[in-house]
Amino acid sequence: MQVLGISGSMREDGNTARLVRAVLDEVGKAGIETEFVSLAGMQIGPCTGCEICQKEHFCHIQDDWDGVAEKMLEAQVVVLGAPTYYFDVNGQTKNFIDRTYSLYHRRRLAGHGGVAVAVQANTGGERAVQTIEGFLSTHEFVSLGSVVGNGFRAGDIDGDSAAMESARSIGRRCAAFLGERRG
Ligand SMILES: Cc1cc2nc3c(=O)[nH]c(=O)nc-3n(C[C@H](O)[C@H](O)[C@H](O)COP(=O)(O)O)c2cc1C
């Protein structure tokens, strides 16, 4: 799989999932293999700050983070999306991001393409997307764009045509990025 989309929302088929999948669907049109993963229902505990990962280069906590992290290492492009909770990403997404500290020491994600996606009801999404962009830049991803969509009830995002078009445009950029890499 070349492009991995991750929705950090606890709504499995909520607005974040739909906006992330809009990026993936466009990538798929170029014949590129994608995979979508929802963090809904997964057990992803917080980083405990133990610093064991400085030596082991992977998080030693045993939960569902591992499987998603392995997929992320395998993917050439990662599209990470989150719902906006109190002007930032939700807790599940933040736990997921914090645990990637274990991949940071050897810059294991450097050079991968990265996309930031956030959905807000009406405010705070820019800050949520900045948190994801901070994750991407810290790990030295190549930024392929970001989008903030609007929606409150699950499915509302389908009515935000500007965000959907933006997601599709980012999808085309992801495909071009992978095309350039293939030469
Ligand atoms: C605990 C909580 C906090 C929220 N905080 C904000 C907020 O600060 N700004 C905002 O515009 N929407 C806020 N919302 C609304 C969600 O961002 C919105 O419903 C979004 O579409 C959820 O995405 P999802 O369907 O992918 O979970 C909040 C929702 C919840 C449950």
In brief:
The chain is of the alpha/beta class. Helices cover 43% and strands 21% of the residues.
Strands, helices and their partners?
Elements: E1 3-7, H1 15-29, E2 34-38, H2 53-56, H3 65-74, E3 77-85, E4 88-89, H4 91-99, H5 101-104, E5 113-120, H6 125-138, E6 142-150, H7 161-182
Parallel strand pairs: 1-2, 1-3, 3-5, 5-6
Antiparallel strand pairs: 3-4
Helix pairs in contact: 1-7
The chain binds flavin mononucleotide.
Provide an overview of this structure.
- The structure is a single chain.
- With 183 residues, this protein is an alpha/beta fold.
- It has one domain: Rossmann fold, CATH 3.40.50.
- 43% of the residues lie in helices and 21% in strands.
- The protein has 7 helices and 6 strands.
- Strands 1, 2, 3, 4, 5 and 6 form a 6-stranded mixed sheet that branches.
- Strand 3 (77-85) and strand 4 (88-89) form a beta hairpin.
- The longest helix has 22 residues, at 161-182.
- The chain starts with a strand and ends with a helix.
- Flavin mononucleotide is lined by residues 9, 11, 14-16, 83-87, 119-124, 151-152, 154.
